Amino acid sequence: MKRILFLLLALLCLTATAQRNIYGFTARGQGGREISMSEYRGKVVLIVNTATHCGFTPQYTALQQLYDKYRDKGLVVLDFPCNQFGGQAPEGIAEINSFCSAHFATTFQRFDKCLVNGENATPLFTYLKRKLPFKGFGTSEMALAMDNMLRQHDANYAKSSDVKWNFTKFLVDTKGRPVARFEPTASMSDVENTILKLLH
After folding, report:
1. Most Cβ neighbours (<10 Å): which of 66, 128, 161, 195?
2. 130-160 in b/e burial notation, b at 16+ Cβ within 10 A?
């Protein structure tokens, strides 16, 4: 009986921690190993869903530049390939690794392919979306084009917190709390400036 009570209390504590920050979550790494987000405790974490055949794929360059510039100051970039948007990440993880190495020389952490929306979404992304709902693409020409494209498929698309497209970015502070969401149309300089505010 005591063992059961202990397990229940431990589960409740884990759930509470997961609701306050990302550290109670795991995500599937390459090779199937579950990686705990607690491994990044104390780091500023930029979580990105990516694709290899997207108009935004060149953002890999900017992500690597950010990582190179600030990793010694505590920045971690976590790459989650996802094929849910236009089927633009069709390869297996080995091919994705080869593509990113050959074209963008990426060295930051890459996880296994995952889902970020729907019933089978990676729980980490479900949590991030709940904490940081969608607030629009902005007013740039590209932002208006994205809005028009998605509105043609779903007039009410903006009402959900779902990830809308490849290269959506979630920024997490050193206490594991989600603090900012950047749509793929956001300026990478805005991303960098927000990161700088969180780094010690």
Report:
1. 128
2. ebbebeebbeeeebeebbeebeeeeeeebee
| Amino acid at site 199 | L
Q: How far apart, in Å, are the Cα atoms of 137 and each of 143, 155, 164, 178, 182?
A: 5, 15, 9, 19, 9
Residue given tokens 């043609």 in the structure block: 152
Global pTM value:
0.90
Residue carrying the six token digits 């405790």 = 41
Give the chain's end-to-end CA distance (angstroms, integer): 46
Task: Give kind and range of the element (H or E) at residue 100.
Answer: helix 93-104
* Alpha-carbon distance values, 140 to 19, 56, 118, 147 (Å): 34, 15, 28, 11
Partners of 162 in beta bridges: none
Residue 51 near residue 99 (C-beta atoms within 8 A): no
DSSP character for 109? E
Q: What is the predicted pLDDT for the residue at 13? A: 44
**pLDDT digits 0-9 by tens, 3-17:** 654 444 444 444 444
Q: What pLDDT shows up at residue 184?
A: 98
Which residues of the chain form beta strands (DSSP E)?
Answer: 26-28, 34-36, 44-50, 75-81, 109-110, 169-172, 178-182
Residue 54 annotated as catalytic: yes
What one-character DSSP code corresponds to residue 32?
A: G
| Residue range 27-57, pLDDT digits in tens | 999 988 999 999 999 999 999 999 999 999 9
